[in-house]
Design brief:
Helices cover 39% and strands 16% of the residues. β4, α4 and β5 form a beta-alpha-beta unit. The protein has 295 residues and is α/β, with parallel strands linked by helices. The longest helix is centred in the C-terminal third of the chain and has 14 residues. The strands form 2 sheets. A 6-stranded mixed β-sheet has the order 1-2-10-7-8-9, with helices on both faces. It has a 4-stranded parallel β-sheet with strand order 5-4-3-6.
């Protein structure tokens, strides 16, 4: 997969930020946003093992209207010459102009198929999946789950934890489907812990991460926990407060902050530092899982 050659290990960059420094906490940024210019961050780590398993077949996957995963899959298909199909949640979107994210998918050659939200919720059921595949003329497709999170992806993300061994006490990241955290935690050393910041409401993610680890490794691995307080209303919700925080972080450190995931995790870490959640001397690594999308 020469067109997908990554920059690994991704850089680990310490930044001076008084919101952490006054509590005796060192902040390091794990710059997974610099792994690959188009398959950014955890998307490369999760997609690469699945692309190997696909062995040249059509890739069929799922996502919402602003899915980073759909964009990464479409880009991978273009780079490798593989057909891609994206099943998009919301049949009402089919009658509207494509938003910039979906337009990028289409420009990269992805065939988009819009389904109603009820069908989308049942997409993993074998009969529903078979119908979706047949309707997209992709009956022999290699299916990648929403967000790219399956056992292969989780095992691929284990390397992220291994890269951070000996460099941090706590490793934090935003979570969507939980696959990156499931693999990261498995790769960390026994004296390290992982902290996940879900970007969706619902309180269901812990069970899904547990299930992913069981599928990938046969049981729970590593020390990890979730803090569910920082979703800002749910996926793709960006409040004025969060926007102001992200813009301020960019001004302070000259690092672009992706709003839907990374901004929420960084906001959470500032809040937790103020709460005294990290003892003085803690080395805190925040994984920068993505970068802002530009059309």
């Amino acid at each position: 997969m020469t067109d997908l050659r990554p920059r690994l290990p991704s850089p680990l960059q310490e930044v001076a930020d008084d919101r952490f420094g006054r509590h005796g906490v060192r902040l390091l940024l794990k710059r997974d946003d610099l792994i690959h210019p188009e398959l950014i961050g955890n998307k490369w780590r999760k997609l690469a093992p699945n692309l190997e398993r696909a062995a040249g077949r059509t890739l069929l996957t799922f996502g919402g209207a602003y899915s980073n995963h759909l964009r990464a899959t479409a880009a991978a298909g273009r780079l490798l010459g593989l057909p891609t199909v994206g099943v998009v949640r919301g049949d009402e979107l089919a009658d509207r102009p494509l938003n910039p994210s979906l337009a990028r998918c289409a420009a990269d050659g992805m065939r988009l198929r819009f389904v109603d939200r009820s069908t989308y919720r049942r997409k993993a059921e074998p009969d529903v999946l078979a119908r979706l595949s047949a309707a997209a003329d992709a009956a022999d497709a290699y299916v990648v789950p929403e967000g790219g999170s399956n056992a292969a992806a989780v095992r691929g993300c284990r390397a992220l934890g291994a890269e951070l061994r000996g460099h941090a006490d706590v490793v934090a990241l935003a979570c969507g489907t939980g696959g990156t955290l499931a693999g990261l935690a498995a790769g960390l050393a026994p004296d390290q812990r992982a902290l996940g910041i879900p970007v969706l409401r619902g309180g269901f993610l812990g069970a899904e991460i547990q299930a992913l680890q069981e599928e990938a490794f046969g049981g729970r691995r590593g020390e990890w926990r979730l803090d569910e307080r920082f979703h800002f209303g749910g996926y793709a919700r960006v409040t004025p407060e969060l926007e102001a925080f992200a813009a301020d972080f960019e001004r302070r450190h000259g690092i672009p902050v992706e709003r839907l995931y990374v901004a929420k995790s960084l906001y959470a870490l500032v809040s937790l530092a103020e709460e005294g959640a990290f003892p003085p001397g803690t080395r805190l690594a925040a994984v920068v899982t993505g970068s802002p999308f530009t059309a």
